[in-house]
Design brief:
The structure holds two protein chains of two kinds. Chain A is α/β, with parallel strands linked by helices. Chain A folds into two domains: about 240 residues, Rossmann fold; about 80 residues, no CATH class. Chain A is built from twelve helices and twelve strands. In chain A, the strands form two sheets. An eight-stranded mixed β-sheet of chain A has the order 6-7-8-3-9-10-12-11, sandwiched between helices. In chain A, helix 4 packs across helix 5, helix 4 runs parallel beside helix 7 and helix 5 packs across helix 7. Chain A is globular, with a radius of gyration of 20 Å. The mean pLDDT of chain A is about 90. Chain B is of the alpha/beta class. Chain B has two domains: about 240 residues, Rossmann fold; about 70 residues, no CATH class. Chain B has 13 helices and twelve strands. In chain B, the strands form two sheets. An eight-stranded mixed β-sheet of chain B has the order 6-7-8-3-9-10-12-11, with helices on both faces. In chain B, strands 2-1-4-5 form a four-stranded antiparallel β-sheet. In chain B, a hairpin with a 2-residue loop joins strand 4 and strand 5. The longest helix of chain B has 18 residues. Chain B starts with 5 loop residues before the first strand and ends in a 7-residue tail after the last helix. The model of chain B has no long low-confidence stretch (mean pLDDT about 90). Classes of the chains: A alpha/beta, B alpha/beta. The complex binds adenosine-5'-triphosphate (2 copies) and magnesium ion (2 copies). The site of one magnesium ion has 4 residues of chain B, from helix 1.
Chain lengths: ~325, ~350
């Protein structure tokens, strides 16, 4: 693996709530190398978006706080930057694609203008040039009739088109790293295939790295080099993509893979599910949180299991119950 | 087929495109352009298609959140095509929608309890105590803790908010729910819970669904029949197994080949669609898909009747020479196959 572009070390992010400080992200570490794609998967609410927001200084204020950890991007610790410095990096060196496109788009501005803004802000170009570049970006993300569509307001676009506009904005300045939170979730598979193809192409051309948050394991399998599996604020497993699909080791990862309807699953059958539900943030135990979900009590809930490397690049949170050591 | 709970006939929804100095109408977006379909009680019709092809607009027109330009919508035996908000109010109980974007659909200033209680209050269901019990039951039904009721939408993750949307939709035990990408925002383990939930509710209450999604494996799993939409029109509709195992339309075939499978297999064969997605503002005059793939028979489709034909029992496909194999086209058109 080449030199990491982004290194996240022992990140802890908490929210100030009525119940006190609760940790949504609890000592998360991972790396993204130049030109590589890292996938992050995990239960809804496990802290994927909060992790992403922490990296780029967009935590909801004043509730969200980074309590500990480093986010090294090209050697600089982003957690120490001033807002003004962060703003220069965001949208320029780091492109961001948000989970909910409406939060990233300004409802009162034409979409062409919003994309052109990226060029005006970060690259010193004329207004005319910025507008042309914006249309070119819309074309790249396969918006039909881009010259006409550039004049639209966000509410005039379909869900998938809005998402493509957000993707266009994120890629506009040819960033070194793209943080994409469910970028293709709102898209149909053919457009999804085109967008993933576009991201791959830009990656090839510019050595762009991608941090891809998605719950679509199909997308992960087709695009990612490495995968991080999160559960209840923590990384429970991390491995090269092929290795993870061939040999999932943590009980949560296995449950996840089992619960996807596949093309050959009997129609209208009840799907296997992971029983129970994730505990509320404030009730998280210090130990194995998947054991907590399974309603187990005992030693494994008390102490955080060690995170061990079991094969080259394959790491797993080694709870004696949830880690299937017997498979090795 | 039983008397359908929903009947849509030649429905069109066009939006004006404004431009020029006086913001006058310079064209229209043909978001839905002549759709007909039926849904039987207890049945799920899956709806798939390219982004922007008009799925949400069709769903919104069915529940009367968007006005139809032409055609008709009948629900439970009543023509509701032009029923206004007041007329719809008593029907809301039976006709619900779950939205694609949960942020847009939940009032940010209301607590989860208020959000779930609102439909019960509007329809005068129960008293304060029974409503409170119902709210707890609904939360439990969608897998959220009872403590969620005092919190606000922004305190939840995307997936959790979607479950609130589902709880609200089922609060009044409707007959039909238009589900617009209800599980797209959910991670897979919750997705399977929600799909199971929708299936169980259907078994318990005999609910019908129009299930819009772009995840084809999910649609196949939950649907009895599947309709494939392309640029405002349905191009293929059949039993789910039929559509997936014996697709007839070229677009359906491309769609099926693009499904990402959850296993690492880098050299899978895929039909990558060339050309730009056509625009509903100025759609091609003939076969939209034929135009996109620059089919040599495209010219023939201009002005031709491309409406759905029953190619096999219950298997409907657009009579489009650009999008069918020569054998299927011969069956549809009764044309003698040409030996090329
Ligand atoms: N502003 C906030 N105040 C309090 N808690 C919050 C806030 N924002 C998020 N959380 C909590 O932090 C946790 C992590 O949320 P996050 O949005 O990162 O989940 P996620 O993994 O992205 O889920 P999804 O797949 O559903 O998008 C959740 O339990 C959520 O309820
Ligand atoms: N209020 C509106 N005004 C103008 N055009 C609109 C409006 N709502 C939708 N459209 C247009 O109608 C077409 C269909 O949009 P719709 O949201 O129905 O697509 P969709 O199939 O649901 O797509 P997606 O899969 O991306 O959600 C698009 O071209 C869209 O831009
Ligand atoms: Mg998220
Ligand atoms: Mg839609």
């Amino acid at each position: 693996m080449s030199e990491p572009l982004l290194q996240v070390r022992e990140l802890i992010t908490a929210f100030d709530t009525e119940a006190g400080l609760v940790r949504a992200v609890d000592q998360v570490s991972f790396e993204v190398a130049k030109g590589q794609t890292l996938g992050i998967v995990g239960e809804s609410g496990c802290g994927k978006s909060v992790t992403a927001m922490s990296l780029i200084g967009l935590l909801p204020q004043p509730m969200g706080k980074i309590l500990q950890g480093e986010v090294l991007f090209k050697g600089r610790d982003l957690t120490r930057l001033k807002n003004s410095e962060m703003r220069k990096i965001r949208g320029n060196e780091i492109g961001v694609i948000f989970q909910e496109p409406m939060t990233a788009l300004n409802p009162v501005h034409r979409i062409g203008k919003q994309i052109a803004e990226c060029f005006l802000l970060h690259k010193k170009v004329s207004k005319k040039k910025a507008w042309e570049s914006a249309i070119e970006m819309l074309r790249l993300v396969k918006i039909p009739a881009p010259e006409l569509r550039a004049m639209d307001y966000p509410h005039q676009l379909s869900g998938g088109m809005r998402q493509r506009v957000v993707i266009a904005m994120a890629l506009a300045c040819r960033p070194d790293l793209v943080i994409a939170d469910e970028p293709t979730t709102a898209l149909d598979v053919t457009v999804q295939a085109q967008i993933l193809d576009l991201i791959k192409r830009l990656q090839g051309e510019m050595g762009m790295a991608v941090m891809l948050i998605t719950h679509d394991l199909g997308v992960i399998a087709e695009t990612c080099d490495e995968v991080v599996v999160m559960y209840a604020g923590r990384v429970v497993e991390r491995a090269p993509a092929a290795e993870l699909f061939a040999r999932p080791l943590h009980a949560y990862t296995r449950g996840l893979l089992a619960s996807i309807p596949r093309m050959d699953t009997p129609r209208k059958s009840i799907l296997p599910v992971i029983p129970g539900m994730v505990a509320a943030l404030r009730d998280f135990v210090p130990g194995c949180r998947f054991c907590q979900r399974m309603g187990r009590d005992g030693a494994t809930l008390r102490e955080r299991p060690p995170f061990i490397q079991v094969a080259p690049g394959h790491w797993v949170e080694a709870c004696p119950i949830c880690y299937a050591a017997t498979e090795l | 087929m039983m008397t359908p709970i929903l009947s849509v006939r030649d429905l069109k929804v066009h939006f004006p495109v404004l431009g020029g100095v006086f913001s006058s109408k310079i064209g229209s977006v043909r978001a839905v352009d002549g759709v007909s379909l039926d849904i039987a009680p207890g049945e799920t019709l899956g709806l798939v298609g390219e982004s922007g092809c008009g799925k949400s607009t069709l769903g919104r027109a069915i529940v009367r959140l968007t006005d139809a330009t032409a055609g008709s919508v009948s629900f439970d035996g009543r023509n509701i095509t032009h029923t206004g908000p007041r007329g719809m109010r008593p029907l809301r109980k039976d006709l619900q929608m779950i939205f694609q974007d949960p942020v847009e659909s939940l009032n940010a200033r209301h607590s989860i309890r208020e959000i779930l209680e609102e439909p019960l209050i509007i329809h005068g269901v129960g008293n304060a105590a029974s409503r409170a019990a119902r709210v707890k039951e609904l939360l439990d039904r969608v897998g959220l803790p009872a403590s969620a009721q005092d919190r606000y939408p922004f305190e939840f993750s995307g997936g959790q908010r979607q479950r609130v949307g589902i709880a609200r939709a089922i609060a009044l035990k409707p007959k039909l729910i238009v589900c617009d990408e209800p599980v797209s925002a959910l991670d897979v383990s919750v997705q399977s819970q929600v799909l199971n939930l929708l299936l169980e509710l259907q078994r318990e209450m005999g609910l019908s669904y129009l299930f819009i999604a772009h995840d084809l494996a999910v649609v196949k799993h939950i649907s009895d029949r599947v309709a494939v939409m392309y640029l405002g029109k349905i191009v293929e509709m059949a039993d789910a197994e039929e559509v997936y195992h014996r697709p007839k339309h070229a677009y359906t075939k491309a769609l099926l080949s693009a499904i990402p499978e959850p296993e690492v297999n880098r050299d899978k064969k895929r039909i990558l669609l060339e050309g730009d997605v056509p625009s509903p503002i100025d759609p091609p005059k003939g076969s939209a898909f034929g135009h996109r793939i620059r089919h040599h028979r495209y010219e023939e489709t201009i002005g031709a009747d491309l409406s759905l034909q029953e190619l096999a029992p219950g298997h409907w496909v657009a009579a489009d020479p650009c999008c069918l194999t020569p054998e299927d086209w011969a069956l549809v058109s009764k044309e003698v196959p040409q030996l090329v």
